[in-house]
Amino acid sequence: MSKQLATKFGEILFKNPVVPASGTFGFGREYEAYYDLEKLGGLCSKGLTLEPKPGNSGIRLWETPAGLMNSIGLENPGIDAFIEKEWPHLKELDTVTVVNVGGKDEESYLQAIEKLNAIEVKLIELNISCPNVKAGGMAYGMKAKTAGDITKKVVKLSNHPVMVKLSPNGDSVADIAKACEESGALGISLINTVQGMAIDYKKKAVVFDNLYAGLSGPAVKPIALRMTHQVCQAVKIPVMGMGGISTWEDALEFIMAGATCIQVGTMNFVNPLAPLDIIDGLQAYCEKEGLANIAEVRGIF
Amino acid sequence: MAVVLSNEFVSRGICRMTVAFKGDVLPGQFFMLRAWDKDPLLSRPISVHDYEDGKLTFLYQVVGKGTEMLSRLTPQSDVTLQGPLGNGFPRITGDLCVVGGGIGIAPLYYLVKNYRKHNPDGKCRVYLGFRDVAYGVEDFEQAADEVNLDIGGIITDQLQVASGEVVVTCGPEVMMKSVAKVVPAENRVYVSLEAHMACGIGACLGCTCATKYGNRKVCQDGPVFLRDEVFYV
Predict the structure, then answer these.
(1) Residues B109, B80 within the same domain
(2) What ipTM score was computed for the predicted complex, to two decimals?
(3) Beta bridge pairs of residue B148
(4) How far apart are CA A253 and CA A245, in angstroms?
(5) How far is CA A280 from the centre of its chain?
(6) Where does the record place a coiled coil (chain B) (predicted)?
């Protein structure tokens, strides 16, 4: 393990701060053909819901300048199938598997969380920020009060530490993060995708069946960096920053803004080896700058 | 990274690019191609048109910024290839009938060539439909027993399928659905689907299609499916 990159997120040890983001990494299997997942600091599972979800109809992807809009709609096999088919494989990996959980209402969040109590998850990422589902999803993450309420109930029920994944689309993200912190969250991750819209003028039609969709990729990075900074200023719990990170330099900027770990999302689609390139780049940076640990440059603004 | 050997327009808006590549490549598989940094962001899924002696050929239509940039690559320049991806067509025994429309003919040439190699006694018939200008037809004429051409009409109007022929189709969805409808139920029909893709390897779930077995990924589980799997009949 690299001494320079080893990172504690709360009490959880990550061998490095680089974590592929939920929804861009499946359950890891697709990327195992490209590299050893144990090189990663951790990985976030595809967003799971209590029941299997088929996802949204119609066009699900739309490219924009330096960005990608998606309207996948949390297609996933459900918690039970995950525990049965994916967890036996993931739990053997020497990396931190973060299990991402979504829901359509309070009951479905809590039932999913209860089922996860049966397995040895190191960290849950509570998704209250998906812009692509009609019920639940982002609705809980728009205001500090609702975000704090659901976090409190989930934290109380869960045997595992809970990190809350926040939306850039709601009220002041710092206020929402503070409410999650006060409700017992171990950490915060942000940002989920930025809600956007696409229109096909030739067809005089909206592109997505769900009308709006989530924008990610390099196009959103400055927004994500600003929000990561605001949240890091507002809370004492650790933060995983994400949003358009495509190079080690981007990752370093998020760490300098205060992020403890960083997540790599859309870039996994562009270059399957992106997380490894970022790890290597951060390692080389630490060596060049003579840092004992990357933490020396964390939160310097 | 691969080196471009040749890259030329063969018709208006249609390019043929050959690159140096070593590996096992099956008909119906595709590669993710890029030759730029982050704009456009995504790589482009392009099907294999031919593969022989370390030369991999793509026949592609220039439809947007990505394919336009690909079309401007000159010999000896680099292109990033990821693949081969997808399952491709199954190995076909018995007689083959291929129906291609527009740029959908691209993966069918390698299929026909490969079929001929493995089935020297089999019969291979081809139907090709184009909106205004035909391209790539001579290649099919060399590899197949019979080539039927339609320009500006509806290719399925002349489609006659013999008993026992396996039918493979690739082209606009409306054409493939029409093929699926007119071919008798006793004939096996494979359709090669196209979809927006971000990753090409099964992670993004952007190319999901509904099948009678539930959702499947065009990139990883396809792009080739049986017609009844994807509700084309």
Answers:
(1) no
(2) 0.92
(3) B127
(4) 9
(5) 21
(6) none
